[in-house]
Design brief:
The complex is a heterodimer. By secondary structure, chain A is mostly beta strands. In chain A, 0% of the residues lie in helices and 59% in strands. Chain A is built from no helices and 11 strands. In chain A, the strands form 2 sheets. In chain A, strands 2, 4, 5, 9, 10 and 11 form a 6-stranded mixed β-sheet that branches. In chain A, a hairpin with a 2-residue loop joins strand 9 and strand 10. The radius of gyration of chain A is 13 Å and the shape is globular. In chain A, 34% of the residues are buried. Chain B is an all-beta fold. Helices cover 0% and strands 54% of the residues of chain B. Chain B contains no helices and 11 strands. In chain B, strands 2, 4, 5, 6, 9, 10 and 11 form a 7-stranded mixed β-sheet that branches. The relative contact order of chain B is 0.33. Classes of the chains: A mainly beta, B mainly beta. The interface between A and B is medium-sized, with 24 and 24 residues.
Chain lengths: 109, 117
């Protein structure tokens, strides 16, 4: 059974600081996704990582994938309040997408 | 135009009732999903349909029955509602084009908040 673990589950940080969210998964997969969910809202796709060493960046967020370590990271650079949300990683195993428990990020002024 | 839509947005009902949630996507995708998100934000897949055929049926009570009249619609019917069914239910769709470069990114609907009293 595919397990996906995210850490930390809660993250409170100040504006302007950098931080990394980690996503570990237990079995081989060929797709890793990062989603953002604002409070009371739906999930929005941020990144799809397809291969070992893949790196994608959008604004202050950068995601990377190491398939050998079964690890993806979501790096936040110079955080701003608008990044406050819950971030999920998800891994596709066989046909079943499995989500991590999410990281609730709060960015303080 | 909303890509993935769900109705209703909110559903408040009594234990023991039967209710349905509807989902429609206008993205032309061939795969649709139902997820349940609990109060701790844990997101778990319930069902997936590909071209109107069930391909994923995770361990959910058989009180939950999905129906796909066509590949743009996937409805969820719930019988004999229980307190533990209270959650947010998300519909999603994706397009699997095949091959190593296919992303299968899922597009989520706005969610239906179900409260069972």
């Amino acid at each position: 059974e595919l397990k996906v673990e995210q850490n930390p589950l809660f993250l409170s940080m100040q504006e302007g600081k950098n931080y990394t969210i980690y996503c570990n998964y237990s079995t081989t997969s060929d797709r890793l996704y990062w989603y953002r969910q604002d409070p009371g809202k739906s999930l929005e796709s941020l990144f799809v990582l397809l291969s070992n060493g893949a790196v994608k960046q959008e604004g202050r967020l950068m995601a990377s994938l190491d398939t050998k370590a079964r690890l993806s990271t979501l790096h936040i650079t110079a955080a701003v309040h608008d990044l406050s949300a819950t971030y999920f990683c998800a891994v596709r195993g066989s046909y079943i997408p499995t989500f991590g428990r999410g990281t609730s990020l709060i960015v303080h002024p | 135009d909303t890509a993935v839509s769900q109705t209703p947005k909110y559903l408040v009902t009594q234990m023991g009732n039967d209710k349905s949630i509807k989902c429609e996507q206008n993205l032309g995708h061939d795969t649709m999903y139902w997820y349940k998100q609990d109060s701790k934000k844990f997101l778990k897949i319930m069902f997936s349909y590909n071209n109107k055929e069930l391909i994923i049926n995770e361990t959910v009570p058989n009180r939950f029955s999905p129906k796909s009249p066509d590949k743009a619609h996937l409805n969820l019917h719930i019988n004999s509602l229980e307190l533990g069914d209270s959650a947010v239910y998300f519909c999603a769709s994706s397009q699997a084009t095949g091959g190593a470069s296919s992303t299968d990114t899922q597009y989520f609907g706005p969610g239906t908040r179900l409260t069972v009293l």
